Amino acid sequence: MKNRSLSAYHHLPILDGMELLSAKAHTLDFPFHRHDTLTLSLIFDTPFHTQLPDKCITAIPGTLTITNPDEVHATPCDPDFGNSFFTYYVSPDIFRKISRGKSFFFEDRIIDDAALFQELYFLSNNIKHTSIDFETR
After folding, report:
1. What is the edge-to-edge ordering of all strands in the sheet holding 30-33?
2. What pTM was estimated for this model as a whole?
3. Residues 63-87: what's their mean pLDDT?
4. How far, in Å, CA of 37 to CA of 61, rounded?
5. Bridge-partner residues for 42, per DSSP?
6. 110 in a structural domain
7. Which domain holds residue 79?
C-alpha cells in the first residue's frame, strides 16, 4: 500500500522547549526505541498500539497514552488506514518541578479524560498562534 502519511514536527518555546509530532494516516511502524522525554499522545480515528517489552497497550480514539522517559517501546501502525495522533514530548524536568523534585513513573498508560484531551487538542490546533498564552491557560 502507498504511504500517504502526513507528519510534521514542531518545537515550542514553552515548557523547556517542548517538541511535538503531528501524524495523520501514518502507516509506517515505529520500531523499538526510547525517548529521554515523557510522551503524551492524543489518539484520533483508529486504535493506537504501544508495544512494550512485556505487553501491548491499546488506546482508543479520544484518549491519551503516556510513555515514560527512557521506556523502550514500539508503535505498530495500521497498514491500511494508518494512525492519526498528536504527540507531546515533555521534558521530565517539567514533571519534577511540578512534583517538587519527586520522581515519577506513570503505571496507567491510558488517560480517559475528555477535558484534558480537549485542552491538549486545542493546543495542538493552535500551536502557531502566538497571541495565545499557553503557559497561563
Report:
1. 30-33, 73-75, 48-51, 56-59
2. 0.84
3. 95
4. 23
5. 64, 86
6. no
7. 10-51+69-92+118-128
